[in-house]
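Q: What would this chain look like folded?
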Amino acid sequence: MSIHKFEAPDRAPRLDVLVATELDLSRNHAATLIANGHVLVDGRRERASYLARPGEIVQADVPPPAGREVLAEDIPLTIVFEDDDVLVVDKPAGMVVHPAPGNWTGTLVNALKGRGGPLSSASEEGREGIVHRLDKETSGLLLVAKSDRAHRVLGAALQARQIIRRYAALSWGHLTEDRITIEKPVARDPRDRKRMAIVSTGRPARTDLTRLARFDSGDLLRAHLFTGRTHQIRVHLASIGHPVVGDDTYGGGGGRKLVGLPPRRHFLHAAWLIFRHPVTGAMVDLRSPLPEELHRALVAAAGPDVPLADANPLEFFGFYNVDS
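A: My prediction, written as C-alpha cells:
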C-alpha cells in the first residue's frame, strides 16, 4: 500500500479530479479509490464530487495492482554511482522505469531486481527504490534508493527542490530569448489521458531554459527542472510552440528526419545530476554524455562548420558551465 498526503489548494476541483491530478492517475482510478474508502479528507470519507476546502488534508492509500508479480530480469544496466545506500543509473532511451499496464516486463525495476541486492521499500510494490522517473524515450541519470532511510531523505530533498536535475534538449524553432522561465501548471490532458497538458487546475510546474546554441532548425537548450511533473519539459516547450525535436506526442516528430533521429526517439537527455548524499552528506555531482544517436543528431543540426564529430558536444557548448 502506498500512502500519499497533500493539502487541498485554493479553488480545488472535485475530489476525483484532485486525486487524479496529484497522484498521476486516471480519473476513473481515482473515483474507484474514493468509492472503496481509500481516500480520506481530514480523516473522513467524501464523495468523488466533493469540493475540498483550502487547507484540508487529503490522504490516499493506493493498493498495488492485484495479481501482478514484478519479476527479476537479467537486463544490463549502466551504473555510474553506487554505495550501500544509493545508486545512479544512466538509463537508455526505450526503457520504462517501473511496471505498468502495457509494460510489465523489461523495465528498470525488473532490471534492478535482476541485479540482486537491497532496494528501498518506501514506494509501492513494483516501484522499489525509485526516487524520481524519466520518460520512456528520455535517457540519462536516474537516482535509486537502496535503503528506506536514503529514500526518505532523498524524497524530502526532492520535494524541497534540493536535488539539481539538468537536461539537454533540442527544441524545434527558436526561443525569443536566451533565457526563459516557464511556470505553467501541468496535469493529464482532459481530452486524452495518454498526454499531459497545461491545465489551470494542474500541479505547479517550473522549468528554466538556457539557450546554448542556435542552429538553422532549432536551439540546443539546458533545461533545469524545479519540479518534476510527468512530461514537464516536453509539455512546457510545446506550450510555447517549440516542442522537443522527435517528440511525436507533443508536435516535434516532424524534426526527426532533419537530424537523423531513430524512430520514437526524442532529443531529451538527463545529463547532469547533483545531490547531497542522504547518509554522508557529501555532494555527489554526476554527468552523462550524450548517447551516440543524440550526438549524431546534434552534429547534423549544427552543420559541417561546427567541429562536433570528435568533441563532447555538451562541453563544447558550455552545458556544464552554469554561468553560460
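The chain has a mean pLDDT of 91.
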